[in-house]
Amino acid sequence: MEFQKRIVLIEDDQELRECYKLMIKSVDKYLYVNSYDSCEEAFSNISKDRPDIILMDIQLTGKISGIEGTRFIKSKYPHIDVVIITVYDDSELVFEALRAGASGYLTKSYNYLELVNSLDELARGGAPMSSKIARMVIHNFHSNPNSPLSEREKDVLRLIAEGKSYSQVADLLFISKETSKTHIKNIYSKLQVNSKSEAIELAKSKRYI
Amino acid sequence: MEFQKRIVLIEDDQELRECYKLMIKSVDKYLYVNSYDSCEEAFSNISKDRPDIILMDIQLTGKISGIEGTRFIKSKYPHIDVVIITVYDDSELVFEALRAGASGYLTKSYNYLELVNSLDELARGGAPMSSKIARMVIHNFHSNPNSPLSEREKDVLRLIAEGKSYSQVADLLFISKETSKTHIKNIYSKLQVNSKSEAIELAKSKRYI
DNA sequence: AAGTATATACCCCAAATTGGGGGATAACAA
DNA sequence: TTGTTATCCCCCAATTTGGGGTATATACTT
What residue stretches are annotated with the HTH luxR-type domain (chains A, B) (predicted)? Predict the structure, then answer.
């Protein structure tokens, strides 16, 4: 049937693969096409398989990780939706996967309804995520309320983090270049660093800005 | 009942307010506390109302916008979950609201199940979002496939955008300082800019990196 | 009243960075 | 063969950076 969404699985756990296969096969609007142990195998069959959706494990035994695989797929076939399935919910992994182009991020589950709902949400143009992942993604936008920096210092550091120079910061905040320098000196001493990039790195990792 | 989540509404549409009020009142685990036309009013009663959740309209008639209101609430009462309800899904508004500290973002609907599901998801530690919003948030992580920059140039520019200097970029990419300079010169000529901050601004706005 | 934090501004100085100019090699693709 | 990419080198002037000071005014806390 033409309207069916073609699904390919990249997952090296035999049991989970069978499980997903059965779930997908039981729904008319999705077509189970194939499954592979590794990205390498999947990629060599991609033109034949013509998937609309790839369900991708993030930790694979092959040489190419799920994240690298996602990056590759999205660069060559941007129309394919990649949904990550994983047991890990380490924040850096999640964000890397999303940056690599993943359209959704599910924690592994053998629950039939959950998977089908996620595929439906994808079809509606959504981005299926488990609750915990959604929270992490949203948290990524929030800033830390315990920042040692004053509001003005945050203003300055945000601009520095955008690549602005002392004088550009000064112009944008309507203060003198010397004042922006003073702010930066104070930021450095509060954060115990002594360069722009260290300050940005620390402030970003602790979400001070 | 002590386990009930206390909900306050900030919404200036009379009809929608009544509608939400009824929906919340019909579920035992949520307690409708109060509703207000404006952030100003809501804030002056916040100590009395002690909300766990605030449903906040984003376009309000009062002087304080929903986004400013969210920022204020999260700075004073970080434990309160703010969920935005809106008809707008302009991407900048969404991201601003999330950065301001919103825990969820719903497009207005009079659908009972949708609202209750969202509140439940919030209680489970999730971040309720309508499909379209989830897609936008995820898209925010993706990079533009039509970037004129080569992969290596993107690597360089990403590091520059993190505040790294020419020499730091060189060290991190195991190339000489001169090479990183050459890459940057090429980036500038491709993007038609002639400074770090212009390059970062353009590349970010077009999601080249 | 004294102390602390914040925001503003100025001075000096040496070292590093930046942006622009040039040229070069090698690999690979169209 | 021309174009793109990735790598490296030299030169140079202007700007930026980071560190050292000092100073004033406001505001909040104790």
Answer: 142-207
Using an 8 Å CB-CB cutoff, list chain A residues near B130.
126
N-terminal to C-terminal alpha carbon distance within chain A: 51
Spanning CA of B51 to C1' of C20, the rounded length in angstroms is: 59
Name the token pair of A90.
């380490």
A26 burial via Cβ count (<10 Å: 0-12, 13-18, 19+) = exposed
Using C1' positions and the CA of A190, the closest nucleotide is: C5
Task: Give the closest of B126, B135, B161 to A135, CB-based.
Answer: B126
Amino acid at site B44 = S
Spatial distance between the Cα atoms of B140 and B47, rounded to a whole number of angstroms: 36
List the single best residue of B89, B138, B149, B191 to mutate versus A (max A Cβ within 10 A): B138
Counting Cβ atoms within 10 Å, is residue A143 exposed (0-12), middle (13-18) or buried (19+)?
buried
CA A185 → CA A152, A195, A198, distances in Å?
A: 13, 10, 13
Looking at per-residue pLDDT, the higher value among A188 and A136 belongs to A188
Matching residue, tokens 């060290």: B171
Of the candidates A15, A32, A33, the residue with the CA atom closest to the CA atom of residue A24: A32
